[in-house]
Amino acid sequence: MFSFIIFLLFKFFLLFKFFLLFKFFLLFKFFCFLPLSSKYGRHDIVKKFLTAKARPTARDSFNYTARNLRSDIVAALISGGFDPNFRSSRPEHKARNVLEEVCVLVDGSRIQAHLEEMMIGIANGKAKVLAPNGDRNRLFLAFDNPHPIPVTSVVLDRIMWRDLNDEKNVFIRGVGPRGLRSWPHQSFPHDKQCVGMSYAEFGPGDYGMFRPEDVVGVLVAIAREEKKSPADAEKRQRKLQRQQQEAENKAQVDGWAQQQKRTQASLAHQRKIQQQEQIKNHQIRAMQQNKAI
């Protein structure tokens, strides 16, 4: 009887062990096989996992997939619940999301049509095109690509052309030795119909200077602030002048009051002395009259 109980306990332990292994296999299947199949471009396997309701986890593989221009897998992952705005936590990705990863690390020398298809697919997946990564958005991240010209062209022509003149596309990092910024293709602003921008860069002793009144392309917020600044400065100047005039008037009035007090005190002192002299003279005359009697 005792051996039979031991046998049942052993069988129960084996069943429990197999159950745990099966659960681990399911977790590994959904959490590991899906990212691996995405990373290595197995579209057929990815679709099967997504059909089996695999949850969108291990999103770092999303960046690898997009970087390798597997637009079919990226489209499947987005339709399966992957958010293109998710920022990878892996150190090598530097908190970039999938669109930023493509802009920085995609091989721009590959077929242009594949790159365009990838960019459009990500943008159509409700990617926030103008969201910054640090101090730059996708357009400026594309400048850091090893092949920046084809990647930047796709970014501009396919996903950012509507927002080209947006204020968020203003990015200034450095100034040349002569205080000028250069662009390798001078015809680019004209070809892309960029609005001309100008920004004041004051030197030593230039504080308070403003741009000419006929300047073109100033951002609305900056123009409004600068238009308000001279009026505010003039208002402050008038206020200071008024306060100074009031202080001078008060000082003058106080001076007159003090002078009047000193004059009155002097007159009172003189009257007192005169009264004392009169009393003294009266006493002397009275004494002289008494002696005469």
TrEMBL record:
Residues 228-280 are annotated as: Disordered. The chain crosses the membrane at residues 6-32. It comes from the Eukaryota. Residues 257-278 have a biased composition (Polar residues). Keywords: Membrane, Transmembrane, Transmembrane helix. The keyword Membrane applies. This is Uncharacterized protein. It comes from Clonostachys chloroleuca.
